[in-house]
Amino acid sequence: MQLDKRVGRRFLVLDPSDNVATLLDEESKINRLSNGMRIAESVPFGHKVSLRQISIGEAIVKYGVEIGSATQTIEQGDHVHVHNCQ
């Protein structure tokens, strides 16, 4: 995927069931994905952001695999990490 860094961050989603995207650049001051979706600022390279709202207890799905569950409601674009999933 090509990216104009003025537009948004590069990300990876491998499976249609994914509800998170993995960030592929270090442009942490940019608060949009390259598709235009707003995301939290300061999310580090390799970390995840939510592609949609994820409810408490709902599975976190990355690359088509359940990797955990939400410990609180995660809004679209939020940083998904140990502070809100297990």
Describe the protein in words.
With 86 residues, the protein is an all-beta fold. It has a single domain (1-86), classed as Archaeosine Trna-guanine Transglycosylase, Chain: A, domain 4 (Roll). The protein contains no helices and 6 strands. It has strands spanning 11-12, 20-23, 48-50, 59-62, 65-69, 79-80. The strands form 2 sheets. It has a 4-stranded antiparallel beta sheet with strand order 1-2-3-6, with no helix packed on it. Strands 4-5 form a two-stranded antiparallel sheet. It starts with 10 loop residues before the first strand and ends in a 6-residue tail after the last strand.
Task: Write out key terms for the chains shown.
Archaeosine Trna-guanine Transglycosylase, Chain: A, domain 4, 86 residues, globular
Q: Helix and strand layout, with pairings?
A:
Elements: E1 11-12, E2 20-23, E3 48-50, E4 59-62, E5 65-69, E6 79-80
In angstroms, what separates the terminal alpha carbons? Answer: 30 Å
CATH class: Mainly Beta
Largest sheet: 4 strands, antiparallel
The stretches of 5 or more residues where confidence is low (pLDDT under 50) are none
Class from helix and strand fractions: mainly beta
